[in-house]
Amino acid sequence: MSTAELARYKGALLALRGRLAGDVSSLADEALKSEDEASGDLSHVPTHMADVGTYEREFTLGLLESEEHTLGEIDAALGRMERGTFGHCEGCRKAIPKDRLHALPYARYCFECARRLPA
């Protein structure tokens, strides 16, 4: 992979990390706000409203966990760049196709090896 290609992937990873970091911060604020609201006195609110608040909080926490996982994958990809292993499959060590890296710049595996991973 050329230096210019690596620079483009690095730029894409850094931009994605910046966007996700903002999303994580917003989601964390939303989860805390939902938690504060849920801990308040809801005796005047029908039970189903509390259930809605619980669902929203759990949904937000699930999104937060997913975004944090993706941030970890981005940081791992940047680490692979530093080690010179970026763009090579961690399963078979072959080059990861560029169309896969364009879609998922932090990909660790080629299509074939990714299919064999447990869901």
Topology record:
Blueprint: H1 3-38, H2 47-83, H3 98-103, H4 111-116
Helix pairs in contact: 1-2
Structure description:
The protein has a domain at 3-85: Methane Monooxygenase Hydroxylase, Chain G, domain 1. The protein contains 4 helices and no strands. Helices cover 71% and strands 0% of the residues. The protein starts with a helix and ends with a helix. The chain is globular. By secondary structure, it is mainly α. Helix 1 (3-38) packs antiparallel against helix 2.
Report how far the terminal alpha carbons are from each other: 30 Å
What top-tier CATH class of one domain fits best?
Mainly Alpha
Residues in helices, as a percent range? over 70%
The CATH architecture designation of one domain is Up-down Bundle
SS content category: mainly alpha
Individual helix count: 4
Strand content: under 5%
Order of helices and strands: HHHH
Largest sheet: none
What is the tally of beta strands? 0
- Silhouette: globular
CATH topology of one domain: Methane Monooxygenase Hydroxylase, Chain G, domain 1
As residue ranges, the low-confidence spans are none
Radius of gyration equals 20 Å
Instruction: Estimate the mean pLDDT confidence.
Output: 82
What's a quick, concise take on this entry?
This protein has 119 residues and is mainly alpha-helical. The chain contains four helices and no strands.
